[in-house]
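INTERNAL AUDIT FORM
Audit reference: QA-55
Scope: verify that the stored structure record matches its stored sequence.
Auditor: D.O.
Record contents follow.
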Amino acid sequence: MKIINTVYALATLIILFGAYLKLNDYASCSKFILGGLCLGIVNSAIHYLMLIKKIQELEDNHETSS
């Protein structure tokens, strides 16, 4: 979990830095913004999948304790 968050934070910083460097070039800047949106969607999907995994683990633990 910490590794995923660290990678996400580093990638976000790289995208923001790249957008800052290319601020005058609209086409490149829009690509960086789209990249940031895609990264956000991927991060949300990862968190959603981890939540599903946690729920399954809790259900398994509940079934074994019954």
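Auditor finding: record pair retrieved intact. The CA atoms of residues 60 and 66 lie 10 Å apart.
Action required: none
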